[in-house]
Write a structure and sequence with these properties.
mainly alpha, 131 residues, elongated, 4 helices
Length: 131
């Protein structure tokens, strides 16, 4: 549970999100329908938001927090990473391939994002208790 690994993962995923956003804006605009371009951009948006959440988890892990809070911030970061791969990844695949089979994977990523946020709140509350 190293905070620097969490911070590095968040930074990497944020950087990839910026690159994918630029790719969509410049490279895919002429190739995809407006609907599929919007699908791709939603993936980018959620990837970037959750990359920042991963960075927040890493920062909070470096502060003077309880071991229990640190553990749950770490698990929340893992949920955000899984969520990015499932939610954003399925939207990228759907937009680029047009294969609708990827659609059912998206809600699994959304559920993982929600679990991550619940764990984030739990970690914050555990830290307030000094446990």
């Amino acid at each position: 549970m190293k905070a620097n690994n969490v911070l590095a993962a968040g930074g990497l995923l944020a950087g990839i999100g910026v690159a994918l956003g630029a790719f969509a804006s410049h490279g895919l605009k002429a190739m995809l329908s407006p609907y599929l371009l919007e699908v791709f951009n939603i993936g980018v948006q959620y990837q970037f938001i959750h990359a920042l959440a991963i960075i927040a988890c890493g920062i909070l892990m470096t502060n003077k927090v309880s071991a229990k809070a640190q553990k749950y911030f770490f698990i929340a970061a893992i949920c955000f990473i899984i969520g990015i791969f499932c939610f954003s990844g399925s939207l990228y695949a759907l937009a680029l391939s047009g294969i609708k089979w990827f659609g059912p994977i998206t809600p699994l990523g959304g559920m993982t994002f929600m679990l991550g946020w619940a764990l984030f709140v739990y970690a914050a509350l555990q830290n307030n208790r000094g446990e």
